[in-house]
Every structure is written in C-alpha cells, then in structure tokens.
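Q: Joint fold for the lines below.
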Amino acid sequence: MTTELPAPRDVPDATVSRLPVYLRALAELASRGVRSISSQELAKAVGVRSTQLRKDLSHLGSYGVRGVGYEVAHLREVISARLGLTVTRPVVIVGMGNLGRALAGYSGFANRAFPVVALFDRDPEVVGTVVAGTPVSPMTQLARLSKELGVTIGVIATHPASSQEVADQLVDAGIRSILTFASAVLSVPEYVTVRVVDLGTELHVLAFRALNRRTEEPRESIS
Amino acid sequence: MTTELPAPRDVPDATVSRLPVYLRALAELASRGVRSISSQELAKAVGVRSTQLRKDLSHLGSYGVRGVGYEVAHLREVISARLGLTVTRPVVIVGMGNLGRALAGYSGFANRAFPVVALFDRDPEVVGTVVAGTPVSPMTQLARLSKELGVTIGVIATHPASSQEVADQLVDAGIRSILTFASAVLSVPEYVTVRVVDLGTELHVLAFRALNRRTEEPRESIS
DNA sequence: GAATGTGAACTCCTTCACAGCA
DNA sequence: TGCTGTGAAGGAGTTCACATTC
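A: Joint structure:
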C-alpha cells in the first residue's frame, strides 16, 4: 500500500480540474529537488491564489504543516491517489488523421498512467501501418481488443461527421470515458462521461477576449 | 453594415464559452434548411437546458419572437458579431511536430475567420518545408511576418520546455492572444490573454470522473 | 396557446478574515 | 512568528417561476 485516502468527502468539480495542474507543478518541483513548499509559492507557480490552493487541498484532507508548508513528495501521492492515477488506464485512439497521429505520439498520454494500447481507423490503407510504435487496427476489432486490453478511455480524433458512430462503437465496447476532439455533441448513455476539446471554441473565446479586452484578474505575487 | 450590436452590456464568461457551441449547432441547422427554432429544440441539440440558452441569449439582447422561437440566420449573425467573428483574425502556429502539423491542417482553423497565415519551427531541417500549403519559416522571421500579416493569435505547439521562450517571442511580435498546447504555466504581461489546452489534464479529469462516477445531470428532452 | 425574457431563489465557487498549530 | 485550515461573506452562474408578447 502506498497512500491511504483518509478523507473521502467529495471534491468540487472546479477543484478537480485544478488538481492536475498542481500535480504537474509538483512533479517539476520534485525534479528540481525541492522537498517542501508553501501554498503561496506553489500558488504563484500555477497562477492561482494561495487561499484557493489551500481550500482545494483542504478538500483532500489536511496534509500541510502549519508554519512550514507542504511536503512535495507526499502531496504528489495524495493528489495522484485522489485522481485515481495509481491505477493504469489504457487508452484507445480512433481516427488516424493528423490529429490522431499527433495524439498517438503525445508523451503526455504515455506518462501519467494513460498508455495508448491500440489505434483504429476505418481506412483500409491506413490499417496495418504502425503509428508511434502501435499498429493500426480496423474498426471491426475495436470491441474485442478493447475488452482484451482492459481499455477504459476512448479518444475520438475523427471528423465530426463520424464521431457519433464512433462513440456508439466505443460504448458498445464497454468504454465509459470518452474524450473527443470532434466538434459535435455526442449522445451517449448517462453512465458514460464525455469531454469535448474543441479547437474552434478555444479560438472563439480568445477572439472574444481580444475584442472585449478585460483587465486580467491579478495573480498572486510573493510580497 | 451587416449587424448592429445594440446591447453592449457585458457577457458572462460562462456564456461566452457556450456561444461557439450554439453557433455551430445553428450552422448545422442552417445547412439543413431550418429557418426557425425554439429554445427548447436548440437546447436539446447542444445539450443544455432551454432556460440556460434563453438566459445566455438574453445577454446579447432580445432576438427571439415570443410564441415562435428564433430565426436561425439572424441568431447566427448576432452571435458571430458578438464573438467578433466578422473580423478576420490571422493565426500563426509555432512548433511543427505532430501536433503543429495537425493544427496547421485543421479545417476548424481555416473556417470561421481564423486563417493560418504562417508556420514556424526552430529546426533548420523543417524550415522551408511546406505543411498544409504553408511554408515553414524560421523563428527569426516571427516578429516581422506577424506584423506584416496582421497576426492577432499565436498557437504554441512546442514542447513545454520551450513554451515560455516562444510565448515571449509572440508577445514581442505584438501578439496579444495565445493558445498553448504545452502543459506549462506561461508568464506574460497582463494585457496578453492565454488559453491552455492540456491533454493530460483532460485525461486526469476523465479518470477522476470514472473513479467517482456521478449520476450525470439530466439533459433536456422534448416532452 | 406557445414560446420568450427576466427578476428572484438557489447552488456552487472564490475570497476574506482569522483561529489554530508548529 | 509563519503558514495552514476553515467558517463566513461575497460573487458568479444556474434554475425557477411567471409576466409578457406574438
């Protein structure tokens, strides 16, 4: 056993979406040999306020030392455990266009307990080729391979027009977490979680901000 | 003149992030020849509640007809105008790895008033090659080309280790909106807007949801 | 009758102020 | 003294209820 989960209260969504950022910063600190850090310093490193950071961490339990700060190694373990990163979660990617290839080779997937174990495409020309060390399989193999390999997350990197069809196949294959890069609303059973990353939306939001340039909320700086 | 902006009140962040989704659904409807739609139908198509949709639209002004619904073409114009999509916003992409190439060829950029006008890489081997119809330029040309081409948005598709350096160069080139795919916190002047898309974070959040499978909030269905 | 538009209630998140502890 | 942890206050966003208009 590595780390217990002593405080099983539930963690707000907003906090969950920040935990990975804290985790990354802590990994960086650890690699630089930093062993202990205050909420103020860590907050500055990730661009949030120190009270926000402490409140977030308080949802996981109390792991800091008053007057001192947090132990980097321990905090990493606690956050990892809470995010469920102690378990390996095999990933499949469907759609081997430019984006799919980029994702297949993306190291952020391989690290952090998310190994890419299979790739799929419907184009017979692409099937059988090897991308980033993994052979591309035909869609007909999706259910079988996913079950064999214990896949829990499916990534959709196809055109929006096929994304619903792919989502249906992923669901049939027993996958309950879907990350899609196709800008289309997916309809899935309520027990399936979908996250949409849409590049067009990101640009739209940037464009809006540029138009209505708001004074940025001040970030914390060490006084 | 195409569309006026009669209600210049400010639009909440949460609403802004949903407007692109509405816009996409409206484009789809228009292409299918739909001329008018109720908030309930449109809400169902994008996966939000009808009251949310109406409240969002109310921030832009009153454009619906009571007892009838919204005119698709008009609503598209209003949202486009409010998002600033009537102006062309040239984009540059820095980093021609797999992800950079995928983004360069991504049609969601070319459409919607975001033409990719220049690509950059620091590798001399890559400079001079043509990606998706655009030649790759050396970093030394970034400031000059960006100014000449009137670039307003910079996309960072490099490794996290170089992303701060690239961000500095983008800022020096006069760019005030940055979209980065590198999982690192960027420090920029307060007049620059940064949006981070991190694939690792998305997976972490999915993993957490899978672990603490929550009953999804019910989506609207037409009764 | 049918659907919009919006004040008011409610829920969720953030920030403040400060008590508690090393 | 210095920094964490947290109840309370404040703010933002969502949902409700219903008045309003075609």
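Q: Anything notable?
A: Residues 38-40, 50, 54-55, 57-58, 62, 64-70 of chain A lie near DNA strand D (CB under 10 Å from a C1'). The two ends of chain A are 41 Å apart (CA to CA).
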